[in-house]
Specification:
By secondary structure, the chain is α/β, with parallel strands linked by helices. The chain has helices at about 10-20, 35-40, 55-65, 85-90, 125-130, 145-160, 190-205, 215-220, 225-235, 265-275, 325-330, 365-375, 390-395, 420-430, 440-445, 450-455, 490-495, 505-520, 540-550, and strands spanning about 25, 45-50, 70-75, 95-105, 135-140, 165-170, 210-215, 240, 255-260, 280, 305, 310-315, 315, 380-385, 405, 435-440, 460-465, 500-505, 525-530. A seven-stranded mixed β-sheet has the order 9-8-7-10-11-12-13, sandwiched between helices. A six-stranded parallel β-sheet has the order 2-1-3-4-6-5, with helices on both faces. Strands 15-14-16-17-19-18 form a six-stranded parallel β-sheet, sandwiched between helices. Helix 3 packs parallel to helix 4 (about 85-90), helix 7 packs across helix 11 (about 325-330) and helix 12 (about 365-375) packs parallel to helix 18 (about 505-520). Bound molecules: thiamine diphosphate and magnesium ion (MG). Magnesium ion (MG) binds near residues 389, 440, 441, 469 and 471.
């Protein structure tokens, strides 16, 4: 596309974001970025003002995970460096967020004056973001600015990772130069390599007795969920997911096994995956958490391993094969059709982990009972968003109804993700109702963003798991440093001036509050659930035992 001849550099950036599906930009203005905010205000993109930049960064990350691209817009250094952590998470977990930062004007930089917000040199922030993004640009030259914008956006979209654009304040309103875009050679696989890899993989799968697919996050980032579904349906090969890739397919499909996490996860899933004579790892990040702190026993001699960075069948590597081409190729390949998971016990497929147990109305809530109840509460329009801690580990066994309705920072694992991510997710897809699961410690970091939910008329249901501190860390090593100041979380609505709060001690109180929250409430519902500090989910007990040994 060529820009309107009159487009300024800022306007062109807005046009390009819009063309890629972005409708909201998260952030907080400052004098170095006010010019661009004014342009945003008069554009089809809506500014979402958060309370803190970190909230904006996490919201944009969730937005990008759901919509394919997100944007956060902040001022120089004081704002920019606050989204360094959220950008790191987006990088590590492959989420294409465009970080737009205002900056001192080019003319202001002569003779290196000590302008406010500058750290060391004018390019200090740029250098930081070079480490955290896949592409970066300072738009300091109107001749090349449009081209730079296109280059940076293309890299973010291609690699599904964040990118950085710095807008010096004196160039935002300058007209850019429409540039000639040479037709780039399409980014395609090497035909021969692709054909050989598919033949090799098909032969291995057809010869196998117990093939299993382990599906992970890149299937989601590259939009290959339909291909995965087809592949499983057509071949009858069962599918397990990793924690990071959880809900890459709907979890009520008959061929879905559950979350595989080595020794940390469910034993039945582990047995099926590890005993497979042909494990097809699709888009998998072999991280410590995904692999149950390296308790996973996956044998490369019995594996097909395909990601955007590497493709191997047993020990043979194939170069120049794009991940989407391989997955699409597998979906169409001549693969033997089997009776769905024929060798598995039916209970291993699509098993309900938590059979509905009779309610004990006055019993104090436990982590296990909380998740049992939440499992029954999920609906087709629920998106579950977890923070680090019990929230994430307990939720591994929730049954998510449709594909891609679960978000959690299951690799980089930064606390503070879930509440702002709930905001980004609901703006990305207003048909979804976020169910946000967050520990009390994480809530103290970014829970204030519920204010943003109110301001923009969003209605997440937020469960604060109040176990009086950093529960995840207690079994590893405990001390007063794991305590947090006890807040009255359920009274947060009083301070914010909206939303509803509930204090939950028993099973019947949880039931009643969920029944109210399930109806359209016109604002957020915060359920503060009191839990025993020593009560842990089975997954967390196993994880902390292993991590504890490594200290
Ligand atoms: C930003 C950040 N700081 C510190 C940590 C280390 N950490 C991991 S889990 C955890 C405790 C989380 O406490 P809480 O949110 O209350 O959840 P709980 O473990 O109690 O379920 C901490 C401090 C982290 N992962 N992220
Ligand atoms: Mg806690």
């Amino acid at each position: 596309m060529t820009a309107k001849p009159t487009a300024s550099i800022g306007e062109y950036l807005i046009q390009r974001l819009h063309a890629h599906g972005v409708r909201h930009v998260f952030g907080i203005p400052g004098d170095y970025v006010l010019g661009f905010y004014e342009q945003l205000l008069h554009s089809p993109l809506q500014i979402i003002n958060t309370c803190d930049e970190q909230g904006a960064g996490f919201a944009a990350d969730a937005y990008a995970r759901l919509r394919g691209l997100g944007a956060v817009c902040v001022t120089y250094c004081v704002g920019g460096l606050k989204v360094a952590n959220t950008t790191a998470e987006a990088f590590a977990e492959k989420s294409p967020v465009i970080v737009i930062s205002g900056a001192p004007g080019i003319r202001e930089r002569a003779h290196n004056p000590l302008l406010h917000h500058k750290v060391r040199d004018f390019d200090t922030q740029k250098k930081v973001f070079e480490q955290l993004t896949v592409a970066s640009a300072v738009l300091d030259d109107p001749q090349t600015a449009f081209q730079e914008i296109d280059r940076v956006l293309a890299a973010a979209l291609r690699y599904k990772r964040p990118a950085y654009i710095e807008l010096p304040r004196d160039v935002v309103a300058l007209p850019g130069r429409p540039h000639y875009q040479p037709r780039r050679a399409p980014d395609v696989s090497n035909r021969h390599s692709l054909r050989a890899a598919l033949a090799d993989a098909s032969e291995m799968i057809n010869a196998a007795r117990h093939p299993v697919i382990l599906a992970d996050v890149e299937l989601h980032r590259f939009g290959l969920q339909p291909q995965l579904l087809q592949l499983a349906r057509r071949t009858g090969i069962p599918v397990a997911a990793t924690l990071l890739g959880k809900s890459v397919i709907g979890e009520q499909h008959p061929f879905y096994l559950g979350v595989y996490e080595g020794a940390m996860g469910r034993e039945d899933v582990r047995r099926v995956v590890e005993s497979s004579d042909c494990l097809i790892l699709l888009g998998a990040f072999l991280t410590d958490i995904n692999l149950g702190v390296f308790t996973a026993r996956l044998d490369p001699a019995r594996s097909i391993y395909a990601t955007s960075e590497k493709l191997s069948v047993r020990y043979r590597n194939y170069e120049d094969v794009r991940f989407p081409d391989f997955v699409r190729g597998l979906q169409r390949a001549k693969l033997r059709r089997r009776r769905l998971g024929g060798w598995l016990h039916p209970a291993q497929l699509s098993s309900k982990l938590f059979p509905p147990a009779p309610m004990r109305p006055h019993a104090p809530l436990t982590v296990r009972r909380l998740f049992e109840r939440l499992n029954a509460f999920l609906r087709d329009d629920t998106i579950v968003i977890c923070d680090v801690g019990e929230a994430l580990f307990g939720a591994a066994d929730l049954y998510i109804h449709r594909g891609t309705d679960f978000l959690g920072p299951a690799y980089y694992a930064s606390m503070g993700f879930a509440v702002p991510a709930g905001i980004g997710a609901q703006l990305a897809n207003p048909r979804l109702r976020p169910l946000v699961l967050v520990g009390d410690g994480a809530f103290q970091m970014t829970g204030v963003e519920l204010s943003t939910a109110l301001r923009y008329h969003l209605d997440p249901i937020v469960i604060v798991l109040n176990n009086r501190g950093y529960g995840t860390e207690r079994p590893m090593q405990d001390g007063p440093y794991n305590d947090v100041q006890p807040w009255q979380y359920h009274r947060v609505p009083e301070v914010l001036g909206g939303g509803r709060g509930f204090l939950i001690r028993t099973e019947s109180e949880l039931n009643d509050a969920l029944a109210i929250a399930a109806k359209p409430t016109g604002g957020f519902c915060l359920l503060e659930v009191l839990l025993d500090p020593q009560d842990h989910s089975p997954a967390l007990q196993r994880l902390t035992r292993r991590l504890g040994k490594k200290i």
